[in-house]
Amino acid sequence: MQQTDIEIYVLSCPTENIITWLENTFTLVTKSTPSTLCSKVTLAADDGNTIEVTILEQAAGKRFTSIWFDSNKTPWEDDIACARQVFEALHCEVRCNFQGWEEEGNQDPDQWWRINSHGEGPFIWD
After folding, report:
1. How big, in percent rounded to 5, are the helix, strand and coil portions of the chain?
2. Nearest Cα to Cα of residue 98 among 113, 77, 84
3. Could you tell me the pTM of the whole model?
4. What would the DSSP string read from start to end of 76-126?
5. Average pLDDT estimate for 70-99
6. Rounded to whole angstroms, how far apart are CA atoms 50 and 126?
7. Which of 104, 1, 13 is nearest to 66 (CA)?
8. Please, are residues 106 and 78 in contact by the beta-carbon 8 Å criterion?
9. Helix, strand, or coil here: 68?
10. Could you count the other beta carbons within 10 Å of the beta carbon of residue 54?
11. C-alpha angle 80/83/85, rounded to 5°?
12. Superkingdom of the source (predicted)?
């Protein structure tokens, strides 16, 4: 089942590198910079769907950048699948929610998934 959206956090990764990866993975339709820390892009996927993406620097501390795909039409089944592809492409640590987001559920909000050069697995991000 496809998630309603995908959100991951990358550690110490320049926004320019993220946008270059997005341009190499999708077709860039539009790009704007609403603020010094925020970039927004509209992407076209191979299947014709458009995906709105917000890139927000310093989203979790000063070193983490959020990449939020505001669409249920991404090519990934969940946050972890996206995080794996981003780590392979950008070679920087990637974190995401361990279980995906649910409005109501018994998930631990501090339980996350981390991928870095040492491997991947669950951890508590507090």
Report:
1. 20, 45, 35
2. 113
3. 0.91
4. -SSHHHHHHHHHHHH-S-EEEESS---SSS---TTEEEEEETTEEEEEE--
5. 94
6. 34
7. 13
8. no
9. strand
10. 16
11. 115
12. Bacteria
CA pair distance 38, 66, nearest whole angstrom: 10
Domain boundaries, the chain: 6-124
Is residue 82 within 8 A of residue 18, CB to CB? The reply is: no
Identify the three-state secondary structure at position 17: helix
Find tokens 């339709």 and name the residue.
29
Asked if the model's pLDDT at residue 81 lies above 60, the reply is yes
pLDDT at residue 100 tops 90: no
6 contacts 25 by C-beta, under 8 angstroms: no
For 121, the token pair is 């697995």
